[in-house]
Every structure is written in structure tokens, then in C-alpha cells.
């Protein structure tokens, strides 16, 4: 197993990605968590601000694309006004030679929710002693902090562990 670094902490599970869970929108999950008294909301998702509408629809729910950025901003401000610390993965589009399909060919794109001013955006560092920026980690002016994000031991669905890399692991 894996021991957490914050024993005694309570966790809320608020699935937010429609394509994965059939759940409500991310903004609905953010408001719900704030209303439940969350102290911190960790958002390990993101989308390029200029992504085609069809991608927003597929990931965040049909019909949400036209107003998603605005409604996500409203939800983030709502949570911040309720004292919630907002943390987001900064993005994995920093390496022009190894872009994932989510980057859609763009290096270091602006992504939400990481680019929002109320959000602490997280970059990933390597597992080396020098703790350098991981090549895949997006570099943008809104990145606030960096943490280890390469080869992080994580729980596997169904049991066991595996190593994962990304700004989600850093966040």
C-alpha cells in the first residue's frame, strides 16, 4: 500500500469529467465541493483555452462549450470566496518532441483551470537530484509552483501500484 502524507484528512470524491464518469460538469463539482466545506480542491484536468468546441463538449458535457470558460470561472471565484484553496495541474505540453494528443500539436498552450488567477498552477519536476523541470511540463507565466511529477508511485484501479508521470501527479 501507500501511506498518505496527511493522516486524519477527510476526502470528498467529486467526479467532474463527463466523458469519464457521466458526472456533472467540473464547475458543478467545484461548487458542490465548496458547499460541502472543502478546504482544498485539486483539479487534475485541463483543456486548452482555444480548443475546438467539440472537444469541450465531449470532455465537459454536451452544450457546455459555449459558456464553459465563463461558468468555470464563476465556479472558481465562488469556491475562492468560500475560502477554498484551488490547485490545478499546469499541463503536459512542454516538450515539442513528445506532445500528447491532448496538446493538439501546440507547445505550452494556455489551459484552464490552471491559468485562472485564483488557482495555484503546478508544474512537474524530474526525479533527479537536480529536481529540474520535467521536459513534458508546460511552461507558462501562470505556473506558481513545481513539485515532483515524474515516475510517481500511484495506486492502480483494482489494486496494486504503478508509476505515473505528469503535472497531475505533481499537483
Summarize the structure.
Helices cover 25% and strands 20% of the residues. By secondary structure, it is of the alpha/beta class.
Q: What does the model show?
A:
By secondary structure, the protein is α/β, with parallel strands linked by helices. It has helices at residues 18-21, 26-35, 53-60, 65-81, 167-170; strands at 40-43, 47-48, 85-89, 111-112, 119-125, 143-148, 152-155, 161-164. The longest helix has 17 residues, at 65-81. The radius of gyration is 16 Å and the shape is globular. The two termini are 20 Å apart. Mean pLDDT is 81; it is low at 62-66.
Order of helices and strands: HHEEHHEEEEEEH
Radius of gyration, in angstroms, nearest whole number: 16 Å
The structural class is alpha/beta
| Total strands | 8
Name the overall outline.
globular
Taking the alpha carbons of the first and last residues, their distance comes to: 20 Å
Instruction: Flag low-confidence runs.
Output: 62-66
Helix content: 25-40%
Question: What strand order characterises the main sheet?
Answer: 1-3-5-6
Sheet having the most strands: 4 strands, parallel
Tally of contiguous helical segments: 5
Tell me which oligomeric state these chains represent. Answer: single chain
The averaged pLDDT comes out at: 81
Portion in beta strands: 15-25%
Summary keywords:
single chain; 171 residues; alpha/beta; two-stranded antiparallel sheet; 8 strands
